[in-house]
Design goal:
four-stranded antiparallel β-sheet, 4 helices, about 10% strand
Length: about 180
């Protein structure tokens, strides 16, 4: 049991770190590379949506919760309207802005693309988790086919992993990165 717990914690740690990296990659490729703002200066990693200050991987003994709560406030424009969290994600994803000068900004579905890539079907999260468990404790020989569930709210995504059911036989663990 000690080996399983050690492997599980190693797997959750690696997945939490990689979720942050992959979300940043999606923001760069699906948001920043698609549109260059004319009306404001991006904050980038200094308080912008790509900042790790807004990405949290919280783990407990059996689960990992990844939370992304970006802040829309830009100190360069202290009097402008802004939104935070899910409202900001939805504004970017759906080009659903409520402030002036934003009519020509395209939809940029970075969050949904990130979640879909990570989760569906048998996405890289499961592959990386199992690989990391096996690297931490090779004698366990964990196989994929665990149960991973996706929260119904795509803008706050929670990973719950069941260790009692990991017993399948898929050796394909190619990761897209």
């Amino acid at each position: 049991m000690v080996q399983v717990n050690r492997a599980k914690q190693a797997g959750l740690t690696v997945v939490g770190s990689e979720l942050t990296k992959q979300l940043q990659r999606h923001i760069q490729q699906d948001v920043y590379a698609v549109y260059e703002p004319q009306a404001y200066i991006r904050r980038g990693a200094d308080g912008g949506i790509i900042s790790t200050d807004f990405m949290y991987a919280q783990k407990d003994s059996n689960s990992l919760t990844f939370i992304y709560q970006p802040k829309g406030y830009n100190p360069r424009y202290p009097t402008s309207k802004y939104v935070d969290g899910d409202k900001l994600i939805n504004a970017i994803e759906n080009s659903n802005y409520t402030w002036s000068g934003t009519d020509d900004i395209p939809k940029r579905p970075f969050w949904n693309m990130f979640v879909d890539e990570a989760m569906d079907p048998h996405g890289w999260v499961e592959k990386l988790f199992v690989r990391s468990m096996n690297q931490a404790e090779p004698t366990l020989q964990v196989k994929r086919d665990g149960r991973i569930e996706r929260d119904s709210n795509d803008t706050i995504f929670e990973q719950q992993l069941s260790f009692n059911d990991i017993h399948g036989s898929s050796s394909d663990d190619d990761l897209p990165f």
